[in-house]
């Protein structure tokens, strides 16, 4: 199965959140959603505000991360997510984030952060 996986690193300024093999990564970029599989063409994309990144590891387990800004870099055999901030969906209090969505001004930093966290939870629900 090695030819159907690639190296994935997800890093933020304060932590390395994931480092291992993956079979697919789906990310929301400023130009739309993109899926990356093994042998994808090299590219660089800006991650969308309020977006999330979903990965499927080499064991077939799906994991989602709320990602606030940053970049997605694809090389011949590695994908790197360089996030300004990121958090696994398992660590999100969905009720609290939905309350923020209801009270925060649309497009504000708080709104986009909450939107990102809710999207990550919904992506693996």
UniProtKB/TrEMBL annotation:
Domain of life, per lineage: Bacteria
Location of the protein in the cell: Cell membrane
- The answer to whether keyword Ion transport applies is yes
Database matches in Pfam families: ATP-synt_DE_N
Tell me where in this chain the ATP synthase F1 complex delta/epsilon subunit N-terminal domain is found: 6-86
Q: Output a single Gene Ontology CC term carried by this record.
A: proton-transporting ATP synthase complex
List keywords of the entry alphabetically.
ATP synthesis, Cell membrane, CF(1), Hydrogen ion transport, Ion transport, Membrane, Transport
Molecular functions (GO terms): ATP binding; proton-transporting ATP synthase activity, rotational mechanism
How this chain sits in the membrane, per its record, is:
Peripheral membrane protein
Q: Write down the InterPro entries for this protein, in alphabetical order.
A: ATP_synth_F1_dsu/esu, ATP_synth_F1_dsu/esu_N, ATPsynth_dsu/esu_N
The record's note on quaternary structure and interaction partners says: F-type ATPases have 2 components, CF(1) - the catalytic core - and CF(0) - the membrane proton channel. CF(1) has five subunits: alpha(3), beta(3), gamma(1), delta(1), epsilon(1). CF(0) has three main subunits: a, b and c.
Q: Which family does it belong to?
A: Belongs to the ATPase epsilon chain family.
Protein task:
Produces ATP from ADP in the presence of a proton gradient across the membrane.
What is the name attached to this protein's record? ATP synthase epsilon chain
- Gene this protein is translated from: atpC
């Amino acid at each position: 199965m090695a030819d159907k996986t690639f190296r994935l690193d997800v890093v933020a300024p304060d932590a390395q959140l994931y480092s291992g093999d993956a079979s697919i990564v789906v990310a929301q970029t400023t130009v739309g959603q993109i899926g990356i599989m093994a042998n994808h063409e090299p590219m660089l994309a800006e991650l969308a505000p309020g977006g999330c990144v979903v990965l499927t590891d080499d064991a077939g387990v799906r994991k989602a991360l709320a990602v606030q800004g940053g970049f997605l870099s694809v090389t011949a055999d590695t994908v790197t997510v360089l996030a300004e901030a990121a958090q696994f969906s398992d660590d999100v209090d969905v009720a609290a984030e939905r309350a923020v969505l209801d009270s925060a001004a649309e497009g504000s930093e708080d709104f986009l952060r909450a939107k990102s966290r809710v999207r990550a939870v919904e992506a693996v629900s």
